[in-house]
Amino acid sequence: CLLLLLFFPFPPGCAIIRPPRDGGIRYRGLTQEQILPVDYEIEYICRGNRVIVGPKVRKCLPNGTWTDMMQASRCCKSSLVSFFLSFFLSPLQTDLVCHAGFILEGRNISHCTKLGKWDAPKPTCLCECLRIYQLYIGALFPMSGGWPGGQACMPSAQMALDLVNNRSDILPDYELELIHYDSMCDPGEATKLLYDLLYTEPIKIVLMPGCSGVSTLVAEAARMWNLIVLSYGSSSPALSNRQRFPTFFRTHPSATLHNPTRVQLFKKWKWTRIATIQQTTEVFTSTLDDLEQRVKEAGIEISVRQSFLTDPAVAVKNLKRQDARIIVGLFYETEARKVFCEVFKEKLYGKKHVWFLIGWYADNWFKIKDPAINCTVENMTEAVEGHVTTEIVMLNPETVRGVSNMTSQEFLAALMSRLGGKNPEETGGFQEAPLAYDAVWALALALNKTVAPLKAKGRRLEDFNYNNHDITSEIYRALNTSSFEGVSGQVVFDAQGSRMAMTLIEQLQGGSYKKIGYYDTSYLDSDARPQISRLRTHCPTCVKSVGAAHAL
Ligand SMILES: *[C@@H]1O[C@H](CO)[C@@H](O)[C@H](O)[C@H]1NC(C)=O
Ligand SMILES: *[C@@H]1O[C@H](CO)[C@@H](O)[C@H](O)[C@H]1NC(C)=O
Ligand SMILES: *[C@@H]1O[C@H](CO)[C@@H](O)[C@H](O)[C@H]1NC(C)=O
Ligand SMILES: *[C@@H]1O[C@H](CO)[C@@H](O)[C@H](O)[C@H]1NC(C)=O
Ligand SMILES: *[C@@H]1O[C@H](CO)[C@@H](O)[C@H](O)[C@H]1NC(C)=O
Ligand SMILES: *[C@@H]1O[C@H](CO)[C@@H](O)[C@H](O)[C@H]1NC(C)=O
Ligand SMILES: *[C@@H]1O[C@H](CO)[C@@H](O)[C@H](O)[C@H]1NC(C)=O
Ligand SMILES: *[C@@H]1O[C@H](CO)[C@@H](O)[C@H](O)[C@H]1NC(C)=O
Hints:
The chain has twelve helices and 27 strands. The protein is α/β, with parallel strands linked by helices and 552 residues long. The chain folds into four domains: 1-75, Complement Module, domain 1 (Ribbon); 79-131, Complement Module, domain 1, CATH 2.10.70.10; 134-252 and 396-430 and 432-492, Rossmann fold (3-Layer(aba) Sandwich); 256-392 and 503-547, Rossmann fold (3-Layer(aba) Sandwich), CATH 3.40.50.2300. Helix 2 links the parallel strand 13 and strand 14. Helix 11 (433-456) crosses helix 12 (469-480). It is elongated. The model is unreliable at 1-9, 84-91, 524-533 and 546-552 (pLDDT under 50). The structure holds 2-acetamido-2-deoxy-beta-D-glucopyranose (8 copies). Residues 95, 97, 108-109 line the site of one 2-acetamido-2-deoxy-beta-D-glucopyranose.
């Protein structure tokens, strides 16, 4: 037996080939064989209302290849023919046309015969099938868990993908396709899904995770597979680390994005000593580490740094004792109420103090009944008056048609219709959906940008595999130099691959938030555009800040 194997190591015949996308193979008689005999014929079949374009049947040749291998077989959508009855020209003739993107096969004109029949057989419409190669994006969308952002981000990404695929000026030879799983915002679950993405066909050209924990896992592993990772929803400052995450990009800014804005305001109001109070959580700790670095560069000192786990009473007392005036507070909304109840008790508010908080709390957060605190709504309203918030702008406030020819308002309307009447308030990731949309555009534009340089090197995007570093570095270079107008604003990445974006500055005046300015960090750190100060406190919709100037 061994001897026989040695003499006939390769049985004459052909190896099984893969069916076209959206299609299958009909095997006559045999099914399980891995090697099919000479003269054996396979036939392609297409799913749905698709028809085969290219060879429909292939035969195994004696030299172990199949017939017509140079010609691809594709399953193309066919559509109904529209009859445009041109009664005005001639009542007995009809011109046959196809929907855009489809080509007509058969005669395009038909005459009505005396027998009451059309004289030409009904033609079919075939899609042009110009996009030959599929490029796959492996995505993880959390549909549940700590941040169920996939609920809105997935339809949003899908919408971008449909538009990109329909554009003849972006990747005309390719079609992008999303292969996605629900990570449940859980790194454990994501480990399993990452394995599936990497070890099952087809090859993915990029990975798109959401949730900081999941992105950390994916971005750390991806380098081994020469994969670029592009996240649409991760704010952890820890991800801004090119040593640990060399191929990571995100359209969601890092939580540290607030800091340049804060520093700019300190400088504007000429404050040189500030204090901080934080809830002890990784994201706030690393944000304050970053702030410490930045204020130092600006010649500003952090004189007091306080932190608390759950009860802020002692920390607030310490701030009072050290006579803190300008205070940056980083904590979640529930803790914010506890802090300001203590602030009220310690009288750490009023004209001599300015608080800087995060802008993503509910608008009426200080009025919400909370059994954990002892202050009345009146007491709270008194304590929070005049504080300043910074918030990352995720929806372009300007009415401009960006690269996708959609304004942010049109984008929202289109997303709402995709969500089919679901309440945005109850749809996870609705706020971040513009970032998922812009992530797909950033990717498509970057891939489009690689086509020419790759061609010059004799490479093509479809050659990508996990051992291939050249194509990865070309995509990296293209993403690194991204700069386009998206529905979330200007899309630019910093040297760590994090999104730079605009921040909105608001102040609580008379119990409600008033816009006092915008700050655009996407214009910082960029060599092409020197440090233009983009602090706009005189925008038409902004009101003057009150109180802040009295703080010293
Ligand atoms: C196999 O044979 C066919 C026709 O006989 C020929 O066109 C094809 O190039 C051959 N392939 C290889 C790999 O030799
Ligand atoms: C029908 O086909 C002819 C040539 O094949 C072409 O000149 C004509 O424009 C076509 N008409 C329509 C309506 O597509
Ligand atoms: C795709 O593009 C064609 C023309 O370029 C347009 O008629 C069609 O509406 C587009 N489809 C979508 C889904 O945008
Ligand atoms: C895509 O790349 C081509 C060149 O390869 C370029 O002409 C085209 O403008 C690019 N499309 C966009 C939308 O930038
Ligand atoms: C609320 O206030 C009362 C009296 O001022 C005090 O005894 C009590 O401990 C306070 N409770 C909390 C939760 O602070
Ligand atoms: C807190 O508010 C209540 C009214 O809701 C008021 O009676 C009380 O005096 C306030 N406390 C202080 C210390 O001002
Ligand atoms: C952009 O959209 C507007 C309104 O939908 C349309 O009038 C315009 O032709 C579009 N421009 C391009 C270049 O597609
Ligand atoms: C990416 O851009 C940064 C500046 O934003 C630059 O320092 C870095 O060298 C670029 N990396 C590559 C690989 O081009």
